[in-house]
User: Which sequence fits this backbone?
């Protein structure tokens, strides 16, 4: 008869546990929607929505200290598909760039053998997306090409660099946090190293000031701010005032330009970099819990803060113009003149112990409405913000914080009066902008007050702290193939048993069985045959026996699960009956000390079955005779047999004969037989002279293998009566086990320093793993997982499933068998992910939108997408929006950009939706300009888009900012900077007041007095204007650009000032000045010159240029640029949206543009295999699309033949 083995397809995987100390900052949440974090030398990738581990990356030899996802700020197509790239760095200075989907390393980078302090992907260049900036200790920053691993440039600095932060508004600006202060670099470029050493400023730590105790007192941040007037200075502080810089973190605020936060254990300081001054302090009360980390938000001016007790808090900046509860309320006589961040929500803290501490927090960069906490014990807790609507009158009067209101627009389009509660898609969909005038806002919009709260939506648990013992469930056979599940039991040092499902890697059950704290783990666990019936019921064999009982060395269950042999440390062997839980025999005191024991796999199973059947039939007949009332149907033979089974076997004590071998301390092998209550001594074999003290035995078929303390393996062939000794020179053999499966003679041996797999038939080694040589962990326990995979438990708290080579390997993520479908289009093949995106964006060929996969005809796509539609369907909010016929194309584009985590698309469609809607509002309402302005005031583009915002809103924001700077000024330098800003903003009266404040002792007293006179006496007469213009021009020519620009602004020549600024390369400054001083036409001219500059080959920031053009309303130019950059999908959708909003003038040029965009988009959809979409757009493409349409409508057979 032909023998065969059924094997379940089980991927090689790693179960992880507690983290190591260097892993503290190694966590990142990418735009791809996945969380990556370091665990010892591994990198784990977790799906944030379903809290499932998708990938474990194993290649580092040292603990991982940093992980960073690559940015997704570029246009995606077949040539540049959605891909999962991750960089990880370790303690030894190695950086590995991963292709996460396949689990392979794209490149490895090594410069020095010291831990990488910080690293960041560059995101601003259209040309290259492979640039990675890293801080190599002690003081180097190095720019790498992360695709090839080549070093582009290296730059050293005077101090040790701790971390860095890029300015999100200007990629040439970089701030380094050093051991002494901050170094500002203003000439960062990918093409060459910064030429200068940067501008160095020193931080006076708040802790060093004698007023620190007052700072943290309960008087609040307002008084604290007065105590921290100067924190940044160009002079090095004295040794007495600053012992060391205890700043934990430095970060630019992405919500508004030129603001930075510094994190200290008890304060967060908000700095205005225009004047290098603290403008806001978040101080913790004396009894409060110190900060560990802070993540600033982009969409709203908010901060996610992590505290030392594991609590995550959200603070949102208080609006400057708060909406008062009642119209008659008295105004505050002392309005708050600082940035105040109110606590809006906080999650539950964790129980902090010696081994359980919060390690790091990451925040979703796409939606900014969820945060994940990584705990040192390996847990990942995912907290999501949920909003609830409350009535306007429900405001709690005791709270000093102004209420939060719902946004007035959703996905770029304003909401109506009867709008239901918006889904919590993202932070800007949950709370509106807080910087708009109160009364006007109340009249003009439909506001609902919002409260935020954190909900725990995901929890991922790790393994407990080692040591632990492992035992795999009985192997897969033809009999249990239908109900088999690969389940692993893990015995822990605190007495509990954890049951893991190895297909998913998730914890299936936790059983608290033993109450004692310490357990001898050798052979601790042996599982019953049917794991499906695993319940929390436990039976105690040896109950409470007092404290003087010796420790159990090992327990061994016989093959028929009848008997149990218990070996003690200082006590003779005990044999127990498993079925009755009774002690069959306790050996005499002179019984030899057992060093190793194994039950024989051969047994008389047939005779046992005959005995059992006869006993059951007899018991069934007895039951029929005694119970006459039972009807004939009820007393069927089947039910009687089932009822009688347990009674008969226990009462008649039916059992089969089984035997076991064990070795004594002298090396002698004893053979004992057990049947029923009798235990007989069968044979004794004298010790082998070449073997030391035997430590373990394995027996399968006719092969018996013994291992000893010296690392020798002795193979006995019982049939041929020959033995063969193999010295492995690996020290103490701790465990040997045969692989499951008939005829499978593979053997797994575990040593003090590793493990080996042997072929016992050929008596040769198959593979080996050794601690310190090819792995950096020590093995604690081993077992066979399947017939061709082993499972290893190691002292780094991990359990690894490996193939026969025992080499660490990552699996392909698309081969994962997940419990819940995960939404991650990055895992799909490029054609499938792009086709799915096109399918979600528009289905105009259908009467209504659907998520039915039948609408996609290409097999390759259909095969991949079933799980993705299931994942979308599980999220009711998103499904509802996608199926809503009133959900506009622009809103759909924005939603899909969020679903895909596509940064480039998200910014493009946010700005496009805003300005296209503004345009549609303006067109019918030309006479009532004030109404339009009111609409724009209530719903402006967020200030995080900076110079892309409307001019009036941008001006208002800049005036508020200079007001705050004016209040906070504490030195002459600050006053002078404020006066300069006021002059540029046209606030001449206030500027003069500040200039006249200069004291007579000051060296600039005379200059400032004359300047004040000049500002007040400037007239618009010809001669004075020409003189001032001449002086300004000379100043600019002689290197005094800022002073010359000020003079030009005084005489209303701001347009000339912008031109000079652009000539001297100050493009951002020119854009700022144009927004605050010029009318819309002149401002547009300045910004169009900036667009030309951004499109130049040496700058190559066309994506940024497109956003500027959108803000100017140059929609035709945008469409042309998108087409010239080969962004065919975005171009076609944008043209369609513009036509709906009437943003294009109908002429020949726009018609050609429309036909061209439709044709190229149809062609790209055909390439994706998305036939219905391609037919639709080809039919819109006029003459050019006719051939394509004919080709698409050909029968399938012809296409295949072609």
Assistant:
């Amino acid at each position: 008869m032909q023998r065969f083995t059924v094997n379940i397809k089980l991927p090689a995987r790693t179960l992880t546990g507690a983290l190591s100390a260097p892993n503290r900052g190694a966590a990142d949440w990418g735009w791809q929607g996945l969380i990556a974090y370091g665990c010892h030398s591994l990198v784990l990738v977790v799906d944030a929505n379903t809290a499932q581990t998708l990938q474990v990356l194993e290649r580092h030899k040292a603990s991982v200290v940093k992980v960073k996802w690559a940015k997704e700020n570029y246009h995606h197509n077949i040539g540049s598909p959605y891909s999962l790239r991750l960089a990880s760095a370790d303690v030894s200075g190695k950086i590995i760039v991963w292709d996460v989907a396949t689990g392979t390393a794209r490149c490895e980078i090594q410069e020095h053998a010291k831990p990488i302090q910080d690293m960041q992907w560059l995101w601003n260049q259209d040309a290259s997306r492979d640039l990675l900036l890293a801080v190599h200790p002690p003081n180097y920053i190095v720019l790498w090409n992360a695709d090839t691993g080549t070093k582009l440039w290296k730059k050293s600095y005077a101090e040790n660099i701790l971390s860095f932060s890029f300015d999100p508004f200007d990629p040439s600006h970089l701030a380094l946090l050093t051991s002494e202060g901050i170094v500002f670099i203003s000439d960062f470029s990918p093409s060459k190293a910064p030429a200068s050493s940067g501008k160095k400023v020193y931080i006076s730590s708040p802790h060093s000031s004698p007023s620190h105790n007052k700072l943290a007192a309960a008087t609040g941040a307002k008084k604290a701010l007065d105590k921290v007037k100067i924190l940044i200075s160009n002079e090095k502080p004295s040794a007495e005032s600053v012992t060391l810089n205890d700043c934990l973190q430095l970060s630019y605020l992405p919500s508004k330009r030129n603001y930075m936060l510094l994190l200290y254990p008890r304060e967060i300081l908000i700095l205005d970099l225009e004047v290098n001054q603290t403008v806001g302090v978040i101080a913790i009360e004396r009894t409060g819990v110190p900060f560990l980390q802070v993540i600033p938000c982009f969409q709203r001016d908010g901060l996610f803060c992590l505290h030392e007790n594991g609590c995550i808090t959200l603070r949102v900046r208080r609006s400057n113009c708060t909406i008062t509860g009642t119209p008659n309320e008295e105004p505050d006589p002392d309005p708050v003149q600082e940035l105040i961040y109110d606590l809006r929500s906080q999650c539950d803290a964790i129980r902090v112990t010696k081994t359980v501490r919060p390690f790091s927090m990451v925040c979703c960069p796409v939606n900014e409405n969820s945060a994940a906490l990584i705990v040192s014990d390996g847990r990942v807790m995912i907290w999501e913000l949920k909003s609830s609507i409350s009535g306007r009158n429900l405001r709690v009067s005791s709270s000093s914080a102004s209420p939060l209101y719902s946004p007035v627009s959703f996905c770029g389009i304003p909401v109506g009066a009867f709008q239901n509660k918006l889904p919590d898609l993202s932070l800007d969909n949950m709370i509106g902008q807080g910087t708009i005038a109160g009364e006007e806002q109340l009249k003009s919009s439909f506001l609902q007050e919002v409260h935020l709260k954190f909900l725990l939506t995901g929890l991922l648990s790790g393994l407990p702290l080692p040591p632990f013992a492992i035992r795999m469930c009985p192997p897969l056979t033809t009999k249990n193939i239908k109900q088999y599940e690969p389940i692993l039991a893990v015995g822990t040092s605190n007495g509990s048993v954890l049951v893991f499902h190895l297909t998913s890697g998730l914890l299936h059950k936790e059983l608290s069985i033993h109450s004692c704290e310490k357990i001898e783990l050798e052979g601790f666990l042996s599982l019953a045959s049917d794991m499906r019936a695993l319940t929390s019921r436990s039976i105690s064999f040896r109950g409470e026996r007092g404290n003087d009982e010796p420790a159990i060395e090992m327990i061994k269950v016989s093959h028929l699960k009848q008997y149990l042999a218990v070996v003690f440390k200082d006590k003779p062997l005990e044999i127990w009956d498993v079925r009755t839980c009774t002690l069959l025999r306790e050996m005499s005191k002179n019984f030899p000390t057992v060093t190793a024991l194994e039950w024989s796999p051969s047994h008389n199973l047939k005779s046992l079955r005959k005995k059992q059947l006869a006993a059951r039939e007899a018991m069934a007949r007895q039951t029929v005779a005694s119970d006459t009332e039972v009807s004939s149907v009820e007393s069927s033979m089947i039910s009687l047999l089932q009822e009688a089974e347990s009674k008969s076997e226990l009462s008649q004590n039916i059992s089969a004969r089984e035997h076991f071998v064990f070795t004594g301390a002298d090396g002698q092998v004893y053979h004992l037989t057990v049947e029923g209550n009798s235990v007989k001594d069968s044979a004794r074999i004298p010790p082998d002279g070449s073997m030391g003290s035997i430590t373990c035995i394995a027996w399968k078929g006719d092969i018996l293998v013994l291992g000893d303390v010296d690392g020798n393996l002795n193979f006995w062939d019982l049939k041929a009566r020959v033995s063969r000794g193999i010295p492995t020179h690996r020290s103490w053999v701790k465990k040997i086990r045969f692989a499951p499966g008939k005829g499978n003679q593979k053997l797994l041996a575990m040593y003090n320093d590793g493990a080996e797999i042997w072929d016992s038939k050929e008596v040769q080694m198959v593979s080996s793993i050794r601690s310190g040589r090819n792995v950096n962990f020590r093995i604690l326990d081993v077992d066979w997982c399947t017939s061709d995979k082993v499972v290893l438990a190691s002292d780094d708290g991990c359990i690894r499933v490996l193939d026969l080579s025992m080499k660490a390997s990552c699996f392909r993520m698309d081969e994962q068998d997940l419990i819940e479908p995960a939404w991650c289009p990055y895992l799909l093949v490029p054609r499938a992910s792009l086709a799915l995106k096109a399918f979600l964006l528009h289905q105009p060929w259908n009467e209504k939108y659907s998520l039915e996969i039948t609408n996609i005809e290409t097999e390759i796509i259909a095969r991949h997408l079933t799980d993705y539609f299931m994942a979308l369907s599980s999220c009711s909010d998103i499904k509802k929006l996608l199926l809503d016929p009133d959900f506009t194309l622009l809103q759909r584009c924005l939603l899909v950009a969020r679903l895909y985590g596509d940064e480039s698309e998200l910014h493009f469609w946010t700005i496009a939706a805003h300005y296209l809607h503004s345009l549609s509002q303006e067109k019918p309402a030309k006479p009532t300009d004030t109404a339009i302005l009111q609409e724009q005031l209530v719903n402006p583009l967020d200030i995080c888009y900076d110079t892309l915002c409307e001019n009036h809103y941008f001006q208002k924001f800049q005036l508020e900012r200079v007001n705050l700077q004016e209040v906070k000024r504490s030195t002459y330098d600050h006053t002078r900077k404020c006066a300069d800003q006021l002059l540029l903003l046209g606030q001449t009266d206030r500027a003069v007041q500040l200039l006249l404040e200069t004291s007579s002792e000051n060296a600039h007293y005379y200059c400032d007095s004359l300047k004040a006179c000049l500002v007040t006496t400037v007239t618009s007469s010809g001669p004075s204007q020409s003189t001032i213009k001449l002086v300004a021009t000379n100043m600019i020519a002689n290197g005094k650009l800022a002073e010359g620009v000020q003079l030009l602004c005084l005489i209303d020549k701001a347009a000339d000032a912008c031109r000079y600024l652009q000539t001297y390369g100050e493009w951002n400054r020119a854009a700022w000045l144009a927004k605050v001083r010029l009318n819309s036409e002149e401002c547009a001219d300045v910004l169009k010159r900036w667009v030309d500059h951004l499109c130049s080959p040496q700058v190559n920031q066309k994506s940024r240029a497109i956003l500027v053009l959108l803000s100017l309303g140059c929609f035709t130019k945008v469409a042309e640029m998108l087409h010239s950059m080969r962004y065919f999908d975005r171009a076609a959708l944008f043209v369609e949206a513009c036509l709906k909003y009437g943003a294009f003038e109908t002429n020949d040029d726009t018609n050609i543009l429309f036909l061209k965009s439709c044709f190229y988009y149809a062609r790209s959809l055909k390439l994706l295999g998305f036939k219905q979409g391609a037919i639709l757009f080809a039919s819109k493409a006029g003459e050019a699309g006719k051939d394509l349409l004919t080709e698409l409508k050909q029968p399938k057979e012809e296409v295949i033949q072609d």
In short: The CA atoms of residues 823 and 871 lie 6 Å apart. The radius of gyration is 37 Å. The chain has a mean pLDDT of 80.
